[in-house]
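Progress against Task 2.4 (sequence-to-structure conversion) is shown through the following example record, which the project officer requested during the mid-term review.
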Amino acid sequence: MKKIWNNFGRYKKQVTLCFIATLIEATFFLMKPTFMSRIFDIGLGNQDKAYIYRTGGIMILCAVIAMAIGIYENHVSAIAGQGLGSNLRESLFDKIMDFSSANTDQFTNSSLITRLNSDVNAVQTGAIQFMRMIFVGGWRIVIALILAVRINAKLTLIIVGTIIIFLTFLIVAMRLVMPWFSTMQEELDDLNRKTQDNTHAQRVVKAFVRKKHEETKFNEPNSKLTKILGKANGIIMSIVPLSAVVMNGTIAAVLWFGGRQTGYGTMGFGELNTFLSYAMQVCAAIGMVAVCAGQLGKATAAAGRIFEVIDSSPAIHDPISNVGLMPKSGEIQFTNVSFQYTENDLQPALDTVSFVVPSGQFLAIVGSTGEGKSSMLSLIPRLYDAGKGVVSVGGYDVKDYSLENLREAVAHVPQNNVLFSGTIKENIRWGNPNASEDEIVSACIAAQAHDFITNLEQGYDTWIEQGGTNVSGGQRQRLCIARALVKKASILLLDDSTSALDTTTEAKIRKTLQTEYKGTTILLVAQKISSVIDADAILVLDKGKISGLGTHEELLKNNKVYQEIYYSQIKEAC
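Structure tokens generated for the chain above:
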């Protein structure tokens, strides 16, 4: 509750106003039975019409005031609830943006999306219902009990017993369903993951005629979710009829014992009528709580998942000192670097790797699939941190730089070419928000993207769909390279980023990089020997270790792994 309260932020004022409005509304609402009692006992008893009219008018006024305050209470509770949802989404998104790749791997993308949307919505709805119904119900119970005690303390014990019985039912039910609510959100994670997979891979599903297979995979978590919801809602819904039985029993008990007291003359008819009204108000408030119980259970489980993310620490932090330190050169050095993604990995992705790339050198990295090439590049901008050893840039450990300063010095084109919804121009400016039109065009020319862009009807203003689904793989790669080049960073990391390009286009890009970007330190991961043959040096990885480092000619003479790759590609070409 403390965490939820803190996340209301500037909307705490609305929560406080809602709390005060609820108290006033409940007070005016519960004054009506008292005036009704006076009408019976005094007005009708004395045949005083003026008193009846005057008291009736006061009752109507109380009802109007209660209604007006109730409308205001709903208004401020809605604002506070929406504000809470907005603040939680903002906190979650900020935390996710601070996450390293290791944190994202831990929670998974689908789970983070569920928490950002479904879980926040559940907490927001629960908060609104809490303010609208629990606040109201709670105050009505408290005030009704106080007023009931003033009328007949002994008879009030019946109402207290009702509250105790109901709370017992509620606590038992919530203990039973809370684990299911948590499981339900986890199943939503799985459902989201499968939906994302199929949304992103529609073409593959259709190409391999796997529609029925994917429908079966989707139906599994969907069926589990349905069963869990059925069980949880079945228990929650049982609270409503049980509370109805308790409420009817309460009214019957009040009428029985109160009627006896009325018969003995120890309690007036008006007092019994008023007491019965208060008992019914308590029962109505209990019913409101029963209706809200399910949503509050979901909100509690969802809040736990939200704060699990918000309270988690990013695996990669800025240094405490040297905050203003900037890389002064593009020199890269790995010293006895070992890295694995999880502690359970049987074999590290990189094992005691050491090498130096002088500033401005073009280093190519080759090796079979899964040998740690992409892992090596990800350690330079600290997408992951090395488990052992030191990765240095510009003569300093990468951990000495702030993440912003380090990553400003590195332009990275990952294997998965990601484009965002927006125009081509906007996507290129991701590399440099202040890039001029000429700089954008220059980067696209260097990336061999300018020609196909100008052939599009809207040119650089052509809209790119999310993920770049409306351009080809090769076009997507060239746009991603242009985005990296416009950054004009001292280090350029190309992770198999020309794999979808034809040999001629790839050669033109490589030639441009070696001539126009001579002062840039370039690390190029490639599968084809033709892509790396003219690099200043080639690093060969084998099972996470460096098998060789040298020029094409040197490795072709002395390195068995490089020879195998080279000759296998020659045979394939033949």
